[in-house]
Amino acid sequence: xxxxxxxARIGDTPxxxxxxxxxxxxxGRVWSMRSDVVEMPDGSSARRDYLDHPGAVGVVAxxxxxxxxxxxxxxxxxxxxxxxxPAGLLDVxxxxxxxxxxxxxxxxxxxxxxxxxxxxxxxxTPGSSDEAIxxxxxxxxxxxxxxxxxxxxxxxxxxLAWLPVDEAIELILAGELHNPTLVSGALALxxxxxxxxxxxxxxxxxxxxxxxx
Length: 213
What we know:
By secondary structure, this protein is of the alpha+beta class. It has helices at residues 4-9, 97-109, 165-173, 180-194; strands at residues 19-27, 32-39, 45-52, 56-61, 67-75, 80-84, 87-89, 111-123, 132-143, 159-164, 202-203. The longest helix is centred in the last third of the chain and has 15 residues, at 180-194.
């Protein structure tokens, strides 16, 4: 973005409207449902129900041939097997998001990476959830020599493939790929390559206001 006037005008900003009442009618193993009564600027109030989520990380693992590592996994809520990138919850207390990303790349794909950058930060569904995801770009890939992680549940039998970035973009725009972390990560990668280049991306420890560390 070259125009400083646009940069000064366009950008998400933190803001918190008063909450007069709050309850948690459901608490799950990973996330919960919260119900807040929010005071509106015009003096009225409204109830807002949303998913209280710990946050997550995703990894766009890019090899030297311009391909990204993708995994196919069953997702019960949407009744689909989706192609995704390695990703997982920020469910370990005190764990740095980068360490979580390294862990997910190892556990789900048995790979390691030498070079890490922040690719894109998103709120997945801000109208109904506070879920925040940081997607990292991982380069300098190698298969791990450590003992493989024992997977379970939906991760058993996951397929792994290497997808050229250009083909990923074509499939996304054709409506063939739907996972939001893969979609946002692949599109951000394509934009970064067409712009200032991958080395201009934010460092792996860049601030993340949505999930401070």
